[in-house]
Amino acid sequence: MHHFYSGLIILLCTATFLLGFSATSVAVGFGLEADSTDSTAISDDHPNLQPYETSYNAAQHILALPSYLFYWTTRPIGWGVQYAETRFPYLFEGERGDYGILPFFESGSKVRFAAGALMFHQHVFRPNHEARVQFLYGTDNYRDIKAQYRIPVSQQHNSELVFSGEYEKNPKHRFFIDDDRLFYSAEDAAVQVRYNSTFSSRVRMQNFVNYTNNTARTSSSELPDDPLTFPESLKGNYEILTFGNQFAFDFRQGEMRTVSGTQLIAGADMATSLKNSTSYFRYHLEAHQFIPVPFLPETRRFGIRGKLIKSELLSGDEIPFFDLPNLGGSADLRGFRSNRFRGKGSLIFSAEYRYPMWDVLDVTLFMDQGQVFNNFSDIGMDNFESSYGFGVHILTAKGLAFRAEMAFSTEATRYILSITPTF
After folding, report:
1. Domains with residue ranges and CATH for the chain
2. How does pLDDT run across 250-270, given as a tens digit for each residue?
3. Which end of the chain is less enclosed by CB atoms within 10 A, N or C?
């Protein structure tokens, strides 16, 4: 419980300093310029034509000290962005073009660091038929390759079919039993077909079918005489077929930056093992709320997220461990390692203060509170795990392009690089 309150206090105090920084200003006033043809023209040294400045006393300067420190410590970032805008203006246009190759990096997710590229073409074979291939290579011989082909179905209903596939190999996948960190080697292949449809500007629907082939083996990180090895009962090959549906109700405002409004997401899916009689049902509920800070420009806003996931076993012995809800990583409890907590259900709350530094860059402060559980009766205030931190978000005309964040918890300090938004 004390992690919850300490994280909340840190977030509110830091946000107060930033609000103070945004409210600190220099007031400059000018009188009306005189007509040069007017015989009663005011001279250039008239008091109405002289700029004036507000003055701070010593106490006010002390109160504004956090704002001064924040301003000067972030100036090198500002100089770097100004240089890039001057020398490479196309980077800030917010459009990718019809085709190209984009490099990207990732950290704080499944491995310490990974790098790769995204290749895309918006009109391959036929107009508006989009293809993209993404690959990542990372530490510990990590590999992740994704391919996607999108076909528009109906312009009237803005619907599309999306075919995608993914192959991932992680020889050092983390698995936690209580506080003990174990490793196993995972090799996954998945194929998915999605049908996306937009009923209106506010309502979207998605239906999908997904086939997953997952193999869990002994990791090379294990020692033969280590008593804490990955359980033998969890090793083997799994084949899962999943059908699902999701609705989104979007009442958010803003294009590049979401500045206000609400988004609600609800979905459910049914999964069946193709190797035994195991089947299970899973549902999720998610809400996003954006609130502009009163008396300040709307781009200074708070973002709040709540998300619940729950799995229910329908038949068989147990739900495959890799398909259980989990927390930890770059998408939820950012101060903890990926898959740190695992259970039949998960609950996460996040709060962010997003402050625009430039047209394409936001500074963020965030706090995450989450827990996993097996039964709803297990949920309790004392069971929440806390993480908090700060970061920068680089934006394009369509939203987030890249984020870099520092996240802290009682277990670790983590650096996150990702092209995927939290919410």
Report:
1. 5-15+82-418 (2.40.160.50)
2. 999 988 899 999 999 999 999
3. N
